[in-house]
Amino acid sequence: KKHKTEPTNVLLSDTEQGVGIIEYANKNSTSFYGILKERFTDFIVNEVDYNNKVVHLTDQSVPEQYKSQRTNIKEMSDEEKKVHVEKGFEKLTEAGLDAEFVQSIRDFISKREETESQLITQDSATELPSLVLPSEKDKARRSAIHKAINEHFAHLVISDTAEVNNERHIRLRYLFKNRLLDQSIAQRAPSSAVKFDPRNQNKSWPKDRPDYLHFVLHKENIETVNAISAISDALRVNMKIFSWAGTKDKRAVTVQNVTGYRINAERIEHFNHTKSKNFGTGNIQLGNFSYVDKPLTLGALNGNRFTIVLRDLCLVNNDGQLDRQTQVKPEQLDQIIKQSIQGVNTNGFINYFGMQRFGTNPTTPTSTLGKYLLNQQYEQIATSMLTTRKQENDPVAKAVDIFFKTGNAKEALAKLPKFAAVEKKILSGYKDSNKNHSAAVGALPKSLLSMFVHAYQSYVWNHAVSERIKKYGLVPVAGDLVYAERNARDVNVLEQDQHEEASTVEQPLTQYPTVKILQKDELENFTIFDVVMPMPGSDIEYPEHEINKSYYEKFMKEKDDITPSHFTKCTDYYAYGAYRTIMKRPIDIKYHLKRYADNKKQLVDTDIDKIRGKSCEASLEEQDANGNLVALVIEFTLETSTYATMFLRELLKVPSTVLTANH
Which residues form the TRUD domain (predicted)? Predict the structure, then answer.
């Protein structure tokens, strides 16, 4: 079966070469071809945490010890409920409330159903009945009262704290069976009325419980930030209570750790059953709940474990043509793959910034937008970003066209679909500033603009590394840079951009590891895997061989008219520069070949499939076992900020852009 969009020469990619992805580390291995991401389930990413444990979603239930009494009440008989409520009155007495007030709570609760019936028949009620308890100055006793109410009466009343005559009082209000009743009464209440604030319930966080809920997020075909946003919207919490260690691919199935500040496991678990028009329950699943003392911070992971399916494998001729005529024997492919894996295990692969770093618009990669930003060419940025949608009937393109033809940003905004967030910000910037280009670009999130600058730095880094490897090969040489401390790690600047607007966890200004110049007499103590190269910036050191500061400056000046002063002036966008290891090795590669007959069939199980006992292995029919198509299923671990597509490029010896050409 031939794919409609198969490239004519799979060995060439102007797009990769344009962003500096040029060299290979293993020049002698045989090229072969396969299709990447035919389905989301062909690209599975499991985070590897700081303890080197691969993160999996294995359990979606809330552990018994974390379940609140409120949940268990649902399972009680009427008799058990009565006993449970009586225990609550006993606990109130133990907490120090005198008999008169315990009796007043008993009376208040006993009238709940009668009060609800009366209110349902009254259209004029403007006030919700409540009971204010005497002021209690002792914090421990106040907590004990709240705890008794929350544990024993949570199905009958809810409590908050009210200010009366400058004193804090615990206040009770009925929890009616008809949940809409209190809303309708509240709407009729005068605006001056003191509103009941049920959010105060969260303030009575159990003293013995750590502050953060730790859980696993399993998502499919959605960005990490968008998944967290969907969870926050559904639970009506600020997304800033959540933090995570790193963002994961969109077009994939990914599994990662998340922490949330003072949010109950039951609320998060409830999300698994929530339906909404904005997100399907299928593409976000949560589980593996526990409480921890500290939130996750950016970069708090050791890497990612990938499970990748490359479909419809075939050999590649020397002229770059796919050999679809030869019926490929799995044994023959197995030999080629084995040799290729040996090569990558020995020599590694070049740690290029992959194509994802440069965006999805081939005519204007994000590195070009970064160049425009450094050169203060604001009109070019705005125009490029407004014209990414080329389809004739695209509603966004139509709205933007109004602006270009008439200059009327207000009219264009009125026609712009809600989902076009970037275009909305730019057009709003034009509207509010009387068509000022700088203001239009300035309306974009700072994190997005930083990403453009970092993409430009990445583009220069890729080109410099290609030149370094072409000139000196895969060995360290005098003048190379290495980290001064052997165990130092690369810092992923792009992750900081993506995290900046989403997470509450304050990040200190990045402290890059210090570097030193390799001397000739030290070479035997180092390998190519120790060598780093700089991303250009305002605060960075350079190698002392031919790929030195002068090389960088000449390259940027001739190609893009950029000088070092551009980075110094660009402090708003963190253009300090960074260091990055030039070669990486994959860890613990496992693979097998699989025959199949249908490209639409899923070939590997996700964590959710395993939980639900839906193995695709079992559903592959006999015809698949003898199918004429062959897929490579490969598993491997990469350290943080390393691109799986760059490893696959090296393994197959074909450009990564070709592997995903049919998407």
Answer: 348-585
